[in-house]
TrEMBL record:
The lineage of its organism: Bacteria, Bacillati, Actinomycetota, Actinomycetes, Propionibacteriales. It is found in: Cell membrane. This is ABC transporter ATP-binding protein. It comes from the Bacteria. It is a multi-pass membrane protein. One of its GO terms (molecular function) is ATP binding. Its main location: membrane.
Amino acid sequence: MRQTWRGYGRFTRLAWRASPALTVLTVLMLVLNAAAPLGAAVAIGAVVSRVPSASAMPWAIAVGAFFLLQWLAIGLYQAAAAALAERVNALLQRDLMAAVMRPVGIGHLEDPASLNLINVGQETFRSGWSRPGRLARTLSGVLNGRLMLIGACVIVAKSQPVWGIALLLAGLWAAYEDKVASRIEANHHHSGTEISRRTEYYYDLGVTPPAAKEIRIFGLGPYLLDRYLASWNRSMDEVLAPTSRRPFVAAIALGAVVLGALGSVAGSAGGSLAAGAAMAVVQALMVSLAGARITSWSSLQTELALATLRRYDDAVASLASTPSSGGAVVGAPQREIRFERVSFGYPGGTGDAVHELDLVVPAGRSLAIVGANGAGKSTLVKLLSRMYEPSSGRISVDDVDLASADVEAWRSQLAAVFQNSTRFALTAQANVSFGRVSTANLDAAAKAAGIDDVIAALPDGWNTPLSAEYDGGVDLSGGEWQKIGLARALYAVSNGASVLILDEPAAHLDARAEARLYERFLELTSGVTTIVISHRFSTVRQASSIVVLDQGRVVEQGTHEELLALDGAYAEMFRLQASRFSEAS
Ligand SMILES: Nc1ncnc2c1ncn2[C@@H]1O[C@H](COP(=O)(O)OP(=O)(O)OP(=O)(O)O)[C@@H](O)[C@H]1O
């Protein structure tokens, strides 16, 4: 019970934050809407007791006025509550978005428990019933139902005290049982979030572009449809609670009381009970039944919305404990970036992806990292950009520990091209200058990345949306997208970023574009602290120094020539690739 009231309180504060005017209007119309039928019941009683006298006339007009008032109140109430509901939903979604983006790292986005909580944002898009904003509507049902019941009991009790009390008890019992059953149902409803996510995943796979090619080539359609349906049915089994019989028993008890009261009125009407009073009692009994129906309907909806509201609060609270920004401001590295005995394992992973790693990245020079798949190269970059925190060891920039540094200031020093950079369905300009106000260096960045001719050929140049899913939009090839990513990073460098991270910058490039990248590599990275991860030795050999990673540790380090002379893992990998190319040519 206390939990429910806390939920109502939380919702009221939210509604007030969303719009004080709409909150006041909603509450006023709510009360008017509940009071009008009771006023009408009393007025009808007065009409009946005065007919055929002319004094019945004002009461007849009052009956009409009460119905008119209710009609107006319902209309206004529905409009105000709908507007308030949408504002509350938007506010909650915004708060959740802010909370999800607040932690400095991305570990919470790969943790199933956090994802289940965060998923509440998606769920409310899917199911209108669960949206907390609906409380603006459903609370009216709860309040209306209660007011109608109590008002009806007062009217009945005036002439039939025993039946009035019986009606109150039966009505409250029915409302209580509905509430308990609804609470169980609502809690069940939210128990299946993991399976819901899975169901949604199958659906998205089937209807969105990323997997469309593989689905068709490998004939995955029937498999996906089967999995989708099975997963949906399982999720429904989990969310629908076994039905309790108690609300039905309580509803039958209420019906019996109403029937008994009607019988009693019929027995005494015209005798001990005046016709007018009898009419008011009959009308009040009907109002009480309508109240019970409204209570029952709104109970489940209210509990569903309250449960969702609690889940929003849980999600936001769980993220509040993850570290956010603040701390020493780190500028451009002057001497070095240093990794000292750094270890890190992914949450849910099988072991350390990086293990007691020692590495010095000299400032203003380029360092290439090579190693087999899974050696820990990308993980190193994620640790450097503080997407994750090391489980032990320290990463420092000119002796300032990154763990205690202000992450936003540090990230403003970074520019990166990731293996699969995000393809923003935004304009070409936004894709390159995203988040930065200056557009002065746009063309220079595009030229340096070798994408200037593609941009120039776009229907609306820099203003063309890079997505065929939007009007006037154009999609690019994998290699062109990679050049856009490169331009984004180079643009950031020209706007002050001092550390450039290139994770497989040539993976999608054709031979000519790749050759151009090597030719310009030293020029592009001159004076900038550059870390390049690549399996292509033609890129790697351009770097000032090279490290070889194996199972999360540095096993070799030196220049291209030094490492060839060492004749270790690097030399072996290099020879293998060189022989493949010479065989091919
Ligand atoms: N998000 C993740 N969750 C769990 N384990 C991960 C995650 N990302 C990477 N790993 C694991 O961490 C190890 C190192 O991965 P990492 O991506 O750093 O390798 P890499 O050297 O960049 O490989 P590649 O050359 O294939 O890109 C691998 O064993 C990988 O399976």
